[in-house]
Amino acid sequence: MTALRVDGLFKVFGRHPAQAVDRLRAGASADDIRATGATPAVIDVGLAIEPGEIFVVMGLSGSGKSTLLRMLNGLLEPTAGTVHVGEDEITALSGKRLREVRQRRISMVFQHFALLPHRSVVDNAAYALEVRGVDRRTRLAAATEALAMVGLEGQAEKRPDQLSGGMQQRVGLARALASEADVLLMDEAFSALDPLIRREMQDQLLELQARLGKTIVFITHDLNEAMRLGDRIAIMRDGRIVRLGTPESILADPGDEYVERFLADVDRARVFSAADVMVPAATVLAGSPPADALEALRAHGGSALAVVDGDGRLVGVVTGADLRAASGDVAAAVRPPAARVAAGTSLAELLAPAGAGDAPVAVVDDDGRPSGLVDSRAVLAALAGSAPDGRVPADERTEVLEGSRG
Q1: Distance CA 406, CA 403 (A)
Q2: End-to-end CA distance of the chain, in Å?
Q3: Residue range(s) occupied by CATH 3.10.580.10 in the chain
Q4: Out of 139, 209, 304, 399, which could bridge 129 as a Cys pair, Cβ 3.0 to 4.6 Å?
Q5: Distance CA 162, CA 3 (A)
Q6: Which residues of 79-99 are buried (b: 16+ CB within 10 A; e: fewer)?
Q7: Structural contact between residues 261 and 235, judged by C-beta atoms closer than 8 angstroms
Q8: 300-348 confidence digits (pLDDT tens)
Q9: Is 192 within 8 Å of 161 (Cβ atoms)?
């Protein structure tokens, strides 16, 4: 079951909203509707958000992203369409049942902290549980644990005005975590923070997500933040979702000129990873004859092979030139890779080792077994905006193979 599902969602403010929805469904533009005195804020949005996913909604001011978020927890009633949180259709709920779903299953983290200034940090963190009617001892224990998760041990008895902006936002995050809600809705949660603290909060969120696996809908207008945090990203324009996909897929294929312009300033070095640009590793045992390794290189079509031991762990790498000069077995031709990295290593971290020498970077798993090789051409192509692809160009591959036959 999806954590959140949205079907045919519309929100129109102003005059005759139901009629405006009918016209939008028939093909009218947002400008057509505005000319009648109505304002379409969200137009025909459909989404399915999976459990444990960080789903980012981004767009310029007025694109409809915050209006969409407020319909996800029932703060705004849709003009048309449905919202499901798990099995609950919250657009069909009212009164007590809607309040229960919002208190137990959905929690909000706001841009401007929304802390109660007269309460202590721990009482702020426990507030959602207090509203739910949880006894004081239980809620304070949960709040204290949540504060520890966000790095605020020892701050429980302070008031919010005694904390920095970043620490206040951590209290807001702790309040959401203490509620044990299935879904966290974060509305421009880090945009009021200075760049350094903002980066720290992004790190904090990713660390918590790795431990807790919450479903998070994160609203932002910052593209680099979206690309860093999102498992998937929805880009909105004039109330519609105009592009939906993973950060890597959106960068590789913007889909239209608007999205392409939107992406112009993104830091590709922080979005793409070793896994995006590597060539799957072809392997050869260290004790193999060079002739067998050359044949494997020809079959693979790459520029190098990963040399492994009997347990499949990386020993080093060899190129065609290494193998042609080798005598004895492959082990005599092995050279160390430029670096050993995990699949999630960013291109920013790959730049120096990939350009340092002739050997490729080896991508290895936790047990030291190779999964791919990365050379400098693939890194530079991804940074330049080409589709990430670590394969050797055909003309260079032919040269490698012809040389290996000689």
Answers
A1: 5
A2: 58
A3: 274-405
A4: 139
A5: 37
A6: bbbebbbbebebbebeeeebe
A7: no
A8: 877 889 999 999 999 999 988 888 887 778 888 899 999 999 998 988 8
A9: no
In degrees, rounded to 5, the angle at the alpha carbon of residue 359 between the alpha carbons of residues 356 and 364 is 105
Class of domain 51-271: alpha beta
The CA distance from 86 to 88, in Å, is 6
Q: Beta strand 370-374 with 361-364: parallel, antiparallel or unpaired?
A: antiparallel
- Locate CATH 3.40.50.300 in the chain: 51-271
Q: Is the CATH number of domain 274-405 3.10.180.10?
A: no
* Each residue's pLDDT tens digit, 170-227: 899 999 999 888 899 998 888 878 888 888 889 889 988 998 899 999 999 888 899 8
